Amino acid sequence: xxxxxxxxxxxxxxxxxxxxxxxxxxxxxxxxxxxxxxxxxxxxxxxxxxxxxxxxxxxxxxxxxxxxxxxxxxxxxxxxxxxxxxxxxxxxxxxxxxxxxxxxxxxxxxxxxxxxxxxxxxxxxxxxxxxxxxxxxxxxxxxxxxxxxxxxxxxxxxxxxxxxxxxxxxxxxxxxxxxxxxxxxxxxxxxxxxxxxxxxxxxxxxxxxxxxxxxxxxxxxxxxxxxxxxxxxxxxxxxxxxxxxxxxxxxxxxxxxxxxxxxxxxxxxxxxxxxxxxxxxxxxxxxxxxxxxxxxxxxxxxxxxxxxxxxxxxxxxxxxxxxxxxxxxxxxxxxxxxxxxxxxxxxxxxxxxxxxxxxxxxxxxxxxxxxxxx
Length: 374
Fold this sequence. Notes:
Elements: H1 2-22, H2 26-42, E1 50-53, E2 59-62, H3 64-71, H4 73-89, H5 96-112, H6 125-148, H7 154-157, H8 159-172, H9 198-216, H10 219-228, H11 230-235, H12 240-266, H13 278-288, H14 300-319, H15 327-342, H16 344-368
Antiparallel strand pairs: 1-2
């Protein structure tokens, strides 16, 4: 009897392990935990969070973990929009970095006007935020029209703004590189008297709104349907072109918010150097989150975890004094691993392996039927 119970317990444990491994957030969580463990090994006090003071003497939370959560804000927000675009259009928007420069440039132009160092803001910050988001949504709409109406591949369609976007941002700023007054920096750093970095609060707010929208509207369902089979969704009354267009506009909105945060973080915008190569980090975060880059079903939670994982990797490499030019090499290695894992032949191999293990486990159960316990 004891042998039979042990077999049942073993089978249950194996079943639980299989369920965990097959869960769509297992890979991003595993990567994140692995990176955290490596960081803790390098620096035992890596996760320590303490109370310090900023340059003005205000109490603020400090620590590596706080820095990662704060610095990942733009990446997380962009990953949310990119996930929807990837799921619906079966492609990626490679212009998010350039579009962010445009949005940030619009924000700075609204706040600073034609001055490089204004003594006061030229417009309310909420107006700058709205116009920055509008600029991002306009860029998203442009890309969306090319993809949804003209049936151009997403990567080719977004290559236009990827190439010209930063120059457009420079033109929008009148060729200037203005620096806003310090009060604008509160939204990218700390609000005086509040210890939690403002970008973390913005990230939490965006995530909550996203989850509520996906839960209480049909955006997520329609996006999945169009990504899985556009023709079938059309026969069921959906408009695939409209859904694809809307996902690009949503990504544009995310770009606008991220551009506002980034411009507030540094209180200026250099269109040609702001967030270099962030589009690759965003795509990597989506892939690392367990999403197929070929579209269809998506995992928003996985994308968010993937974004924090990428930021953790970046922070770790910087801590190890890895040359900035070498950082993309490590990220490219992760891309290779993810591509290999998602390859059909690899999936088939692991499916066959799991089926074989399950078959052996079932045979083991059958053998236990003949165990006689006196």
